[in-house]
């Protein structure tokens, strides 16, 4: 309970300081208040000691000697006659300007034993008529009131404990994740010892694989409109554990006694208990669902989990919260019975209904089918509905004493937005070169402030400051500019939405290039622990190359004196034209020790190869071109551009494109080219066999490729004491 009090006080102070709003404290009932309300209900039902001022007037139990005596008798019969338990009753009497002590109550009990009358023996007794003597209470009925209010009011207290249990579960999960992942960071050599059958089995069947056989980053198909992303096996276990904890915390401790004096039936009692429990426990997880969705989530640093993992948990915590709210609303609606229409005119109930409705809409509005096809519309609606969900619940519980959790949720959201805005402001909106390359990729060269340090393998959210899309931000990985270290380069694959609009815009410009002001929010993410391994194999596909490249290139620069570590980069692309937009970076690999292999899955496709003509002037003079045998025999001294243009002048287009490919391979002679799709199983086996020690596989690319590599790694962990790990840089958020 101390933890609950501490959190509640902290949130109350936060609300008063930040929001300028004085919060009503929640009411902890405990045994004392349970006894007060039980005896008050029974005594005021059994007798009237003074003419009531209003319908809910209960002052006579304090202001009259007979009322005090009967209350003392009730406490005694309920076995609650002690100073601490009676303290709430004594405090309650202060509201009626009656000051009592425990000794006064002892005297009141003495009066009860002397003067109390048995109303069953009084002819014509009417409990609504005012009397001036104590009445003898039925001990069986006293017990029933005692148990009834323990079940009713005790459920409020238990709900706080169980709600604390729900967030304590996540605290334990975060603690274990932090200890595990930070131990790998702080004590890297330790992981190399965990290569036994137990450790390998744990990683093979729990931490590395997808839930099923392969699919994790690639969506699971189900009637098209109901496609969904499957969590990893470890994520699934955590989610299932949370669902179990939630079920237990919302079902345990709810009891009913036959003949309950508070509720007319077992059904109504259980509905009310369930409504109260689910309404209170929902508040505890409300800050979590906001925190998990935020970009500036301190838990990412603490646990070293990536954003995609927290988005997975965000979805499930949100679903649980919405379901609890729906159960809460439906249960209360039934208990209102005939008074439903009248009760629903109350402001707090109107806002509760608003929150429930918004939450229900979110459950369907957040479907993968809708997110993928209309993301910007989804995002705007999602934020609006989430605001209605949290805001409606805020107003709903404001006067009930449970608003602190909603203060925390609002504070988390405001903090995240403030940091995001701050990042954008300090970065500024520099004019950036935006170039359309190979009709498939946008290259964005952005000058960066000196304080802004790129994170190898990290990402940033980009705002293109154009009237049609300035409010939209999209995540892209980046690399340092090979030519200018004071700028970063982002590569954006042309799809729909913003990138398609820029594609059309650039297509009308000379050279398919222009300057656009760009705002950057970031950097986010972090590098993998690849530097801790004897061999690091980076496998990427398509536009997943920038983040992977930046990490392996940075690792190569930092480990120049460490010849023991093996670094390999494998890039899978569909066509040769895909090399066009990443050519400078590929050339820069010549000065590193990175063993690079490029797989061309459609080598016969020669689309847009002529674009390589435009790259020739960009090639640095320091690059030594390797001539093909045909070129050497002719002793040609001309430039690459002259050769290509000569081929085009002869109208031998097919032969020219083949020559372009040969020239590319010559210029990138430090890279091995392979045609066809890579076999992930074979690659993993070969790399592990070649490694002198531990091996890390780092990947980002097409979801199918990533899932194939994950599966291959999980099936090749038993290698005679060699540690093998898998790190995924592909983050599927939508």
Features:
alpha/beta; Elongation Factor Tu (Ef-tu), domain 3; 4 domains; 6-stranded antiparallel β-barrel; 6-stranded parallel sheet; 12 strands; elongated
Q: Gyration radius, to the nearest Å? A: 35 Å
Structure summary, number of beta strands: 12
What is the total number of structural domains? Answer: 4
Mean of residue pLDDT values = 87
Describe this structure as you would to a colleague.
This protein is α/β, with parallel strands linked by helices and 734 residues long. The protein has four domains: 29-137, no CATH class; 148-411, no CATH class; 428-524, Elongation Factor Tu (Ef-tu), domain 3 (Beta Barrel), CATH 2.40.30; 530-612 and 656-728, Rossmann fold (3-Layer(aba) Sandwich). It has 26 helices and twelve strands. It has helices spanning 2-19, 30-46, 60-63, 65-77, 83-94, 102-115, 139-186, 188-191, 197-207, 233-249, 266-293, 298-303, 307-336, 340-343, 347-365, 368-373, 375-397, 404-427, 497-507, 545-558, 583-588, 629-634, 640-649, 653-667, 680-690, 703-714; strands spanning 431-437, 441-447, 459-464, 474-480, 487-493, 513-524, 535-541, 566-573, 595-600, 671-675, 695-700, 724-728. The protein has a six-stranded antiparallel barrel with strand order 1-2-5-4-3-6. Helix 20 (545-558) links the parallel strand 7 and strand 8. Helix 15 (347-365) packs antiparallel against helix 17. Residues 1-19, 616-641 and 647-651 have low confidence and may be disordered. Belongs to the ferric reductase (FRE) family. It catalyses: 2 a Fe(II)-siderophore + NADP(+) + H(+) = 2 a Fe(III)-siderophore + NADPH. Its EC number is 1.16.1.9. InterPro entries: FAD-bd_8 (IPR013112), FAD-bd_FR_type (IPR017927), Fe3_Rdtase_TM_dom (IPR013130), Fe_red_NAD-bd_6 (IPR013121), Ferric/Cupric_Reductase (IPR051410), FNR_nucleotide-bd (IPR039261), Riboflavin_synthase-like_b-brl (IPR017938). One of its GO terms (cellular component) is plasma membrane.
């Amino acid at each position: 309970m101390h933890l609950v009090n501490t959190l509640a006080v902290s949130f109350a102070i936060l609300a008063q300081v930040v929001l300028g709003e004085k919060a009503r404290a929640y009411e902890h009932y405990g045994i004392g208040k349970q006894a007060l309300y039980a005896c008050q209900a029974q005594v005021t039902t059994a007798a009237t000691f003074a003419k009531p001022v209003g319908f809910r007037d209960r002052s006579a139990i304090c202001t009259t000697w007979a009322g005090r005596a009967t209350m003392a008798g009730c406490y005694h019969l309920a076995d609650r006659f002690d100073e601490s338990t009676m303290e709430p009753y004594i405090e309650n009497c202060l509201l009626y300007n009656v000051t009592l002590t425990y000794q006064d109550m002892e005297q009141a009990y003495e009066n009860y034993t002397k003067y109390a009358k048995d109303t069953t023996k009084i002819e014509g007794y009417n409990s609504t008529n005012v009397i001036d003597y104590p009445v003898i209470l039925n001990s069986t009925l006293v017990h029933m009131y005692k148990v009834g209010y323990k079940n009713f009011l005790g459920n409020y207290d238990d709900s706080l404990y169980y709600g604390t249990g729900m967030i304590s579960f996540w605290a334990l999960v975060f603690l274990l994740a932090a200890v595990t992942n930070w131990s790998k960071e702080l004590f890297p050599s330790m992981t190399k010892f965990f290569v036994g059958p137990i450790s390998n089995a744990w990683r093979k069947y729990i931490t590395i694989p997808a839930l099923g056989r392969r699919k994790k980053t690639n969506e699971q198909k189900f009637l098209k409109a109901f496609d969904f992303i499957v969590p990893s096996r470890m994520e699934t276990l955590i989610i299932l554990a949370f669902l179990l904890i939630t079920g237990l915390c919302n079902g345990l401790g709810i009891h009913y006694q036959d003949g309950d004096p508070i509720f007319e039936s077992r059904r109504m009692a259980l509905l009310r208990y369930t409504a109260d429990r689910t309404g209170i426990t929902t508040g505890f997880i409300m800050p979590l669902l906001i925190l998990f969705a935020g970009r500036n989530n301190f838990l990412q640093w603490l646990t070293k989990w990536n954003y995609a993992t927290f988005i997975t948990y965000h979805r499930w915590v949100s679903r649980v919260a919405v379901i609890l709210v729906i159960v809460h609303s439906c249960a209360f609606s039934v208990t209102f019975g005939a008074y439903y229409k009248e009760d629903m005119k109350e402001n707090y109930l109107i806002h509760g209904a608003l929150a429930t409705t918004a939450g229900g809409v979110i459950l369907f509005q957040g479907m993968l089918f809708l997110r993928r096809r209309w993301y910007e519309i989804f995002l705007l609606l999602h934020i609006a509905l989430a605001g209605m969900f949290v805001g409606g619940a805020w107003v709903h519980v404001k006067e009930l004493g449970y608003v602190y959790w909603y203060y925390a949720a609002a504070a988390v959201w405001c903090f995240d937005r403030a940091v995001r805005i701050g990042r954008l402001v300090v970065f500024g909106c520099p004019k950036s070169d935006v170039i359309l390359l190979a009709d498939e990729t946008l290259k964005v060269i952005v000058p960066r402030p000196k304080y802004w340090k790129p994170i190898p393998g990290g990402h940033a959210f980009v705002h293109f400051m154009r009237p049609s899309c300035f409010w939209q931000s999209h995540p892209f990985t980046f690399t340092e500019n090979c030519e200018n270290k004071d700028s970063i380069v982002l590569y954006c694959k042309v799809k729909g939405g913003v990138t398609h609009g820029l594609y059309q815009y650039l297509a009308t410009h000379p050279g398919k290039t222009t300057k656009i002001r760009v705002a950057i929010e970031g950097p986010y993410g972090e590098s993998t622990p690849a530097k801790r391994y004897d061999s690091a194999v980076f496998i990427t596909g398509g536009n997943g190359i920038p983040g992977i490249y930046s990490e392996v290139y940075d690792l190569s620069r930092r480990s120049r004196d460490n010849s023991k570590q093996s670094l390999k980069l494998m890039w899978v692309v569909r066509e040769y034209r895909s090399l066009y937009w990443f050519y400078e970076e590929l050339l820069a690999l010549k000065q590193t020790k990175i063993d690079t292999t490029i797989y061309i899955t459609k080598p016969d496709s020669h689309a847009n190869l002529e674009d390589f003509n435009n790259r020739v002037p960009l090639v640095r003079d320091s690059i030594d071109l390797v001539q093909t045998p045909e070129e050497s025999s002719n002793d040609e001294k001309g430039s690459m551009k002259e050769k290509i243009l000569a081929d085009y002048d002869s109208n031998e287009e097919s032969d020219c494109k083949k020559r372009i490919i040969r020239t590319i391979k010559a210029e990138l002679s430090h890279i091995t080219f392979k045609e066809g799709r890579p076999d992930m199983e074979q690659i993993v086996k070969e790399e592990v066999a070649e490694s002198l020690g531990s091996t890390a596989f780092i990947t980002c690319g097409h979801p199918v490729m990533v899932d194939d590599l994950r599966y291959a790694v999980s099936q090749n962990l038993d290698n005679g004491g060699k540690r093998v790990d898998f790190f995924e840089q592909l983050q599927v958020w939508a």
